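WARN no homologs supplied; continuing
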Amino acid sequence: MLNVTLVREAERALAAAQTAGMVREEAINTDHLWAGIAKTEPGMRSGWHHHGEWETIAYVIKGACRLECGPGGQDVYLAEPGDYLYIPKGAIHRESNPTEGEQALVIVRFGGGPVLFNVDGPMTG
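OK structure emitted
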């Protein structure tokens, strides 16, 4: 029998995989799916990281998300509430919150293996 899972806000757990500058709360974690919330305080920026073999979709629910990626981190995207970001597997990136309020993103990942790799910086070429 297949069962539906309901995870209430108070039941989200601090995700095991964290990056400096942001907080990830885990709601769902299976072999090939991860879903939760990522929060960043005003003016904060995460460290550089990638998600290995996981594709990531981020939906902005509060604040704004400035995402840097690409060679030298020169590709910059600004996502606001209602916007989606798609981050391909292995893409080195970092997020920042350019607003005066908390940033909150709904994160859904599809893939496998370790979900987070913190790195020293972006690719240079």
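The CA atoms of residues 6 and 23 lie 22 Å apart.
OK
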